[in-house]
Amino acid sequence: xxxxxxxxxxxxxxxxxxxxxxxxxxxxxxxxxxxxxxxxxxxxxxxxxxxxxxxxxxxxxxxxxxxxxxxxxxxxxxxxxxxxxxxxxxxxxxxxxxxxxxxxxxxxxxxxxxxxxxxxxxxxxxxxxxxxxxxxxxxxxxxxxxxxxxxxxxxxxxxxxxxxxxxxxxxxxxxxxxxxxxxxxxxxxxxxxxxxxxxxxxxxxxxxxxxxxxxxxxxxxxxxxxxxxxxxxxxxxxxxxxxxxxxxxxxxxxxxxxxxxxxxxxxxxxxxxxxxxxxxxxxxxxxxxxxxxxxxxxxxxxxxxxxxxxxxxxxx
Length: 316
Known about the structure:
globular, 11 strands, eleven-stranded mixed sheet, 46% helix
């Protein structure tokens, strides 16, 4: 085990017993919403995972230690410090550990630490991707590179709508990352259920999703799998409302010259402001939905090694 890694007692017990565990990121706590709503949401997501038969493992860096599984007090600590905590990507890990600092884990670092701990399934809101105008700025999230090299299944509601979804999917195709739609052939667009871009494959149940991932691992594939799980329609935003809000936020971001890892937090906050908070409510609901599907998939993955969904039995 990595000498910088601490696995909580609850998570360690579940892993040792071969029980399902789902990883969760910590940037949603520190950078995703204000206190105390951030803490309330984080604890609610953990409870959803427990209610669906799995153990949650919120992942963060505290005092230079990589944490797989946080206590309620640690989640409270992250929630109160908020944006003061460094938003940690792959390039930041060594420095944060060397200096004994805190770090909020993005999709990238959550995947890394989950893999170190032996956790295969990760639920988040949306992944990073290729930013609009990346042909000039070269602003491409490290999340995509991590998906290409770390064998963790990431359940999300698509890449964030502030990004270029088409280019993001092209990038993932180049890197050989399978993009699977949960009950859909259309890539979800975070706040809305459809983007107009097709996923690689569609599945209809957590059992089928687990079977695909199990096969992926048995083949020794290098990278991960991205699952696009659409936001429930009752919580989806009207495209005629959210899309202009995104365009307005991007224009303001460009005018202010905001770049790099400050871009996404600024855009999400600005969209929330423009929509009167409706986008944040949708964000919370889609995270809840992703946690549920991830937990159910993790449970299926932990079933008998000989389990095969009925629709595939004719292939063996």
